[in-house]
Design brief:
Layout: H1 12-18, H2 48-60, H3 63-78, H4 82-94, H5 102-114, H6 118-130, H7 138-150, H8 154-166, H9 174-186, H10 190-202, H11 210-222, H12 226-238, H13 247-259, H14 263-275, H15 283-295, H16 299-308
């Protein structure tokens, strides 16, 4: 299964502000030290109060406030403050108060990354992998991801797991993939929990453990991850790999994610209601979920609705 690897969010800046994300993480793996001409210069003269003020101005919005925030961040960034450098890179990425420039965003992310900002390390890895704002360099991207992971960046750890699972620029190493997914899953990063749960169910890269796989997928499902809910439902429906078949539980899980708008689950809920699997046969429910899946463009549902004139 193909998974996104370096998913750089252009709204990461605002998400971090909204959730009060700490920018103080530093890479701790001495084997991943990268020499840098950029050093922290007089950053102690930049107070956290100044950075906080800049973020508050951004929250308020308006050209004057954005301009003032930009001035504060530029001053702090030039003095070597890694948080300011990261925020400044984000502003160039989004074109907030400045002309959008992936090249300048990449430059500031790189400076912040070299000064230990794990979010910048993640972003510079994303840009190096895709070639945004400069040359494409997958090997270097992986180095930066490993630094971010060593600094506690859960998304970076999960992406490394996907890289080694699929062999993106490196030899496939499912055991190493499991290791990185496990690091991220401990931080409750849902895609990693899902991926690790799947590997425990199949026994790839780790001894097969059905209970652990079900536990991880179940926890991810509780966080609202529709793919994990779908995987659980499918496992209970088919009884694959020694998992006890439980059609009623499968249907309840398909309906749970169907209610959240997951088209494949809507299709499967329709299928089970239509066949009377795990419940009494109910064509009204079957037609309801089939139409819902078709409305989202799920091709099997579109074809079924057209063939059976369910409109």
């Amino acid at each position: 299964m193909s998974m996104p690897i370096f998913n750089i969010s252009r709204n990461l800046f605002w998400l971090l502000i909204a959730f009060g994300f700490s920018m103080s993480g530093y890479a701790r793996d001495p084997d991943l030290t990268i020499s840098s001409s950029s050093r922290l210069v007089n950053s102690s003269s930049v107070t956290n109060t100044e950075i906080t003020k800049a973020i508050d101005l951004v929250k308020k919005g308006g050209k004057s406030n954005i301009d003032n925030a930009l001035e504060i961040l530029q001053r702090a960034a030039k003095k070597g403050n890694p948080d300011a450098q990261f925020y400044l890179g984000s502003m160039f990425l989004d074109g907030l108060g400045v002309e959008a420039s992936s090249e300048k965003a990449r430059q500031w992310f790189l400076r912040a990354a070299e000064n230990g900002n794990t979010n910048a390390q993640y972003n510079i890895a994303s840009m190096m992998e895709s070639g945004a704002g400069g040359l494409k360099d997958v090997a270097r991207a992986i180095v930066w991801l490993r630094k971010a992971s060593a600094g506690g960046h859960g998304v970076a750890s999960s992406n490394l797991g996907a890289i080694y699972l699929e062999g993106r620029g490196v030899p496939i190493d499912k055991k190493l993939a499991v290791d990185f997914f496990a690091i991220s899953a401990k931080q409750k990063y849902v895609p990693a929990m899902r991926s690790l749960g799947r590997l425990y169910l199949t026994g790839e890269g780790v001894p097969r453990n059905l209970a652990k796989g079900i536990e991880l997928l179940g926890e991810a499902s509780q966080f609202g991850d529709n793919e994990s809910t779908f995987d659980l439902a499918s496992a209970y429906l088919d009884g694959k790999g020694g998992i006890p078949t439980d059609q009623a539980k499968a249907l309840s899980l398909f309906v749970k994610s169907a209610d959240s708008g997951h088209a494949p689950s809507q299709y499967m809920a329709s299928y089970m209601y239509g066949k009377g699997l795990g419940t009494t046969r109910d064509l009204n429910q079957a037609n309801k979920w089939m139409r819902a899946a078709a409305d989202q463009g799920f091709q099997k549902a579109v074809d079924f609705v057209k063939l059976n004139n369910l409109r």
